[in-house]
Amino acid sequence: MTETGGHPWRERARPLRLERRVEFDEYEALREFLDKVAALSEETGLYPNLSFGRTYVNLTLFADEDGETLGREHEDFAQRVDDLLAGPAA
Amino acid sequence: MTETGGHPWRERARPLRLERRVEFDEYEALREFLDKVAALSEETGLYPNLSFGRTYVNLTLFADEDGETLGREHEDFAQRVDDLLAGPAA
User: Fold this and answer.
1) For residue B84, which of B46, B51, B45, B36 has the smallest C-alpha distance?
2) CATH class of A5-86
């Protein structure tokens, strides 16, 4: 699955979160990616906010309820999202 | 498809847009709704921004490129989204 732009995961404060933007050249590729992230959410119980249009999606992984910690589960989720984009060879 | 909360379409300015929030009691219902809105986008060529988590989605329909007009196609799209939620009897 080839992304055409966006930016890697970045940590942001207030509220503490990880953000990533992914751009695609067509809607079909975007939807395929969204379905895979949704499956990851159902598997892990972590539900990032996904904000998408036709060829972009912004992913936001908020810290836990206490809003203080971005833990191992967030980093693992972020890595697995990256793996989705790296394609089968990863 | 029963929503459990949110708010109807509202017009907002700067930039001119229509916004609607829909809440569901479970992720499966939310995803089913997202798939139907995506199909509506592919049919009409109108791609609202959809921002969703586990049980909510915020839909934003921006005015045309000129940013000045919310036309008939936006109103029709908004109505068809409402029809998705009103269920088969509608």
Assistant:
1) B36
2) alpha beta
Nearest CA in chain B to A30: B38
Q: B38 and A31: CB-CB below 8 Å? A: yes
Quick check: A44 contacting B, CB < 8 Å?
no
First to last CA, chain B: 11
For chain A, the domains span 5-86
Tell me the three-class secondary structure of B15-62, residue by residue.
CCEEEEEEECCCHHHHHHHHHHHHHHHHHHCCCCEEEECCCEEEEEEE
Beta strands in A1-90 (DSSP E): 5-12, 17-23, 49-52, 56-62
Structure confidence by residue, pLDDT tens digits, B7-62: 999 999 989 999 999 999 999 999 999 999 999 999 999 999 999 999 999 999 99
ipTM: 0.88
**Chain A residues closer than 8 Å to B48 by CB:** 53
